[in-house]
Amino acid sequence: MIVAQHEGSPVLCKESGQRATCPECRAPVVGKYGSVVIPHFAHLASTRCSYGSYGESDWHLRWKWLFAQAGWELEVRIGDHRADAQRGDCVVEFQKRPLSDADYFGRADTYGDEMIWVVDGQRRGIKIADKYPVVFGSIGALGWLEGASQRVIIDDDWAAYLVSKIERRRNRKGDYIQCSIDYVWWREADGWDEHGQLLHDLTAGADRGTTELLVQPKPGGGWKIKL
To answer: For labelling alongside 82, which of 44, 67, 96, 171 has CA 20 to 30 A away?
Structure first.
């Protein structure tokens, strides 16, 4: 978990060994912090608590940590779910693995159309088409988002893509998913940080109560995506 409780207030992990309590089960948790490990809290002993006990990936923890640095609330209880990040009415969910229909609709119905999915596109059968505003992805990687009414951001190794439409297509090799790109955030050489343009745009949109500003034309028009 990224956020724990200390003396009734939410806290982020600042150092290894930092003591706090789990906001769900109230059991003790300890901070994990290092040059490689994303700062987070873990239960001291084996537990049946479902909150933060399932071993989130480094990818998932990294995104939550960056949003925490940008001032978003993390791991917010909404209905029967905990949203990864929330600012105003905007909810962001970070998803590394495909969801079942039940899990997808459970979250989508709870958070509404203003929510944003950030999905892991790294090494998951997703290919950006050179010169064309489309993303080709495998059914397994993106098929669960087919027809989604919420905004979807695909996190790739070197950029992030806001897509407006995810639809199933077929060719001689079988079914695949095609996504239409609305906007590209280019990743800087040292990776995203709390001042990154993607975080800036998402935060500004949430503060204005809309994510519509995310859809903007690429300067100069046209598309030229180098692989």
So the answer is: 44
